[in-house]
Amino acid sequence: MYQNLKVAVVVPAYNEEKLIARTINTTPDFVDHIVVIDDASSDATAAEAIGTGDPRLVLVRHESNTGVGGAVCDGHKEALRLGCDVSVVMAGDGQMDPAYLPVLLDPICDGTALFTKANRFYSRDSYRGMPRYRILGNVILSFMTKLASGYWHLFDPQNGYTAIHRTALRRLNLDRVAKDYSFENDLLINLNILRIPACDVPVPAVYGNEVSTMRMHKVIPALIAQLARGTCRRIVLKYVVFSFSPIALLLLAGLFLLLFGSAASTWVLIHTLGPSSASAGSVLLASLPILTGIHFLIGALMLDIQESPDRLAATAGGMDWRNRSSARGSNPATPVSSGSTSASRIPPSRR
């Protein structure tokens, strides 16, 4: 346990026979359970995990590959079933330094946040040795994820080194979170809809002999499409369905005025081609809605930034949620479900 909280480390693993044992062996002693999700690996990942002999190991084996998101979601469900208070995700390729696990857990333990994630880009030195195109790509992707998720104070959205309290996990519908490489981004969107307080923690990345199976030409277009859908879903659910917020009024009015002004501008432009000239009223009719619409959209954006559930907003609510959860006691076990994919669980007693 860590500060009276039962901790599970979820390790999604696909063909990680070379690194999975090191990941398990370097997991701190205060971790209660190490949940390894063998996502239908074709190598000896499962055998290497069992070979460590760690009594904390709980191995879940998928018969077909579900993607990194599917593996993580099943790991979180298993952590809930085991009665853990906090579920931490550490990749099976050894990129996430376990020495920083306490730093990731502290904001949850003191009630500051219910979700924490690592941030590799916390100083100027963090970019040292990284190609410029990757720096630009990370900045653009981070801004797009800020816009889509509403967590304007978070950076490095693709970093999967995260920790989440069981209170947030129980409120989250894991079956509706994306299962592919956009998992981290979609998870942030779903957490923001539920107004889960979150914060970044500076943690350097560890790069070694891992081999990425990501195909960027396929991942990037799918990720952009996922962020676009997520933005619309978050705005509709958070600001319209769950509470009709002034943000929704400003956003809808701004979009309407912007479209109306664009249509009026096009009409004026077409009818003034040649010797004709537009009257002052026509110009005002075309420009005023556009300027007002832009003003409304900026106002909606500023209010959305203020709505970002950061650690300051979490101080009052985060600890209260934890106390109510603890007072109710442990909930019945939550079974592991992997959709159409069957999974087999190997508990410590049968390894």
Automatic annotation (TrEMBL):
The chain crosses the membrane at residues 239-260, 280-303. Residues 9-171 form the Glycosyltransferase 2-like domain. Residues 324-344 have a biased composition (Polar residues). GO terms for molecular function: transferase activity. This is Glycosyltransferase family 2 protein. It comes from the Bacteria. PANTHER family: SLR5056 PROTEIN (PTHR48090:SF6), UNDECAPRENYL-PHOSPHATE 4-DEOXY-4-FORMAMIDO-L-ARABINOSE TRANSFERASE-RELATED (PTHR48090). Residues 322-351 are annotated as: Disordered.
